[in-house]
Amino acid sequence: MCCDHVLKSGEEKLSASEVKQNLDRIIQLFSYLTGEGLTHFTSKMEGMFSDVAMCSEKRNEFDAHMRQHDSKLDFLGAQVLTTVFWPTYKSPQVT
Predict the structure, then answer these.
(1) Which of 32, 68, 77, 84 keeps 20 to 30 A from 62, CA to CA?
(2) How far apart are CA 64 and CA 70, in angstroms?
(3) How many domains does the chain have?
(4) Do 84 and 56 belong to one domain?
(5) Whole-prediction pTM value?
């Protein structure tokens, strides 16, 4: 939950460097865990980091493709996430 809060920046609206610093601290904390508890405890977080890294890689590939084709599209802010790794929230009711 803490990682999810940090990644979303919560109400504090953390800068990118503050998010990275907080995540580095969390990873450092997990480095002290050992044994089987570590793999089970961190599996969802590992999946989240993998999703974020894959999205970044795909976004860079897309940007390079668009530059190669002289596209006017400047920004695409999409992320594809693996459902099982991320916390779920109730969808807001739309009227």
Answers:
(1) 84
(2) 10
(3) 2
(4) yes
(5) 0.50
